[in-house]
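ugh ok fine here u go
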Amino acid sequence: MYFFIQDDWKIALLSAAVESMSEAVLMTDPAGKILLLNRQFEELWRLTPGWMETITARDRIQQLAHLLCDPDQFLNRLDEVYAHPDLEALDWLTLRDGRIIERHTRGLHLEERIIGRIWVFRNITSREWAQRELKVMKRVLEALNRIVEPQRQLQAGVQALAQELEARAAWLWGVEGSDFARLLAHYGARELRIDLTPRAPGDPCECLQRLINHGFPATAHPIVCPRLAHLNTPDQEPARHISVPIYSRDRPLAILNLVLPSIQPFNVAELRMFAAIANQFSVAIERARLFESVREEQRAAEVLRQAAATLSASLDFEQVLDHVLDQIVALMPCDSASVMLVEGTHARVVRVYGYEALSDEAERAIHTVTFEIARTPTLRRLLETRQPWIIGETHNNPAWVRIEYALPIRSWLGVPVIVRQQVVAFICVDSFVPYAYRPEHARRLATLASSVSLALHNAQLYEQTNAALERERRLSELTRTISSALDIEVILDTVVRLSVELVGADAAVLGLLSADHAALVRTHTFNMPESLMQHVQGVQPVWSAVETRQSVIRHHVMLKAWRVTHHIPSVIGTPIIAGGKALGVLAVYHLHRQRFFGEHDRSMLEIVGQQTGVAIANAHLFAETQRLATTDHLTGLFNRHHFFALATRELERARRYHHPLALLVIDVDYFKTINDTFGHSAGDVVLRSVAEQMQRELRDADILARFGGEEFIALLPETNRAGALRVAERLRAAVAGVPLLREPPVQVTISIGCAVLDSVSEHDRMDTLIHRADRALYIAKSRGRNQVASDP
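structure:
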């Protein structure tokens, strides 16, 4: 350095200054010869200490170039820089080990002349990887959120991920049950001849087995799958394979497989990115499944309602059988189906669907097939247990009996049809895909079988009781009415009223049983005297119908209460049953005339009881479906979607009547710490407890919902700013007042942001109000949490 600085003290000072800098620094003369560097430079480039003394000046730059992915570009850039002494340059270098270095250089001036060049290097690998991770995550999130239809969401997400990572292939498996996986989405997999058939038990797919057995570590882990072995052959381009596990609440959910270019090992940043992507796909898959589940339940409830109405409307035996197959096809996926009637010890096929794919001769022959029930394992089990049965895989299953004219059936579901405690028929549905049927399919088919059993019973009664045509018409009217109703109150009121008309009675009472069948929890009456209701709410004379689950007729019943004696000429009691379970009892009275019920009347009311049971079961199913569609499953509060539906109506009402409207956004403080410290189960307990505490403090008119994660939202109609702040403070104090976790005791607090519309205008929107409350919540948190803040 003496050729441009002739002072030892200045040289020492410059060396010390360079050594003390936090960045890696290199100084060269105007020709590019390295004169000075610091320890940070050696560490950044991973050079051995004293490296300058072990290599000639001419080879130093060459050796640095060999550490880069593109040494020629590096040397050419050096020549360009040194050819222009005044040039200031900033660029990036990629090392062979994958690190990314930012390089900044400028001329070194002394007394208005350039005496050399200074270089500053920074390791920006983490920053670049973070930016890449953000870019990939943004692209995937945009793809997942851009499309409403769930299945297309997953396909778009997989495609976006593969394109952003320049992957040769990507495919997503969804785990169903404990040992089965089905393809959800894929990109480029078929072009690489990758096997995409469903994974069944015993499949050698290592990634599936490790996912089910929780054999993955916490982050994504590269594994070798036998199904990808052909990608490692010499005729294939080098690639990296990775299987990313996707869990939801520690439950195996899915596997994301990727084939990426190059053969470099996966670094920590990549594995972290894959873990983050797995979380996003976990949310998307859960959302898709929930969406599909709710939609399927709603569709199934509607199909069952229509099926009950359709089957009940037909009193012709052959028409009922025809309708059964139509309802099965509408209710669930199936490739074929059959109805068999029980005739003594045998079951005869009377209706089939899907066999038209066979020859005409085979289709005719299948209608003549008769099974001996005792020697047919599937039918024998249905007869003995009277419960649905699913065979997930028929191959190598000893219970499966093959016939001559057989379709390629892989999974099977059967239910018995029970009429008056007797199995009279079997309904069977088949699929060419293994593991096609789940418990909910069995439940739906059993509900349909209840309707079928009732329809068959009605048809038999119609054939046997032609003389009572008018009463049959009334029975059909009643069953249609209650079958088409989904409100249980409407069903019960209709039943008691029409039951009186059906059998020409004077009064009726219908009571629903408690869970232990010891008492009635709800009663509906028609023309019942108040004094008679004191006797076990009007059903004491026929309580044995509840105990025996059989209808009962009693004549000349004497009841005493409060010095009043009731003489009841005749009473019929029939249990309300659905799916073999007693739900209640229907009692019908002759009170004022010496008239007596007969066996025909009992038969009629038994049908009413069975129809009512099915209608109640359908109403409960519909109500549960509605609840699932509007309620958060963890806290029991409204979900986000339903909140917006209610909030929009409240906003419009406040605008119309010029009422104030307040909104609170509530966040559980340090919730992540609770999850990390005590586990997700404790976090769930905290969320439920916080929801319960807040519900106690709010009015019935207030709308409280879970907004997402640990965040809640409350809409307070007709509430001004002062009132909203009082409510918010009350909520905060209620949650902070008691420990929400008892073992160990943990004090939980909440922060609340408040926003108020004193007068709602045409331009006010709910999302704007939420944004203001969010802004206030941020203020509350920035002030230390456990506070209430209001947006000005």
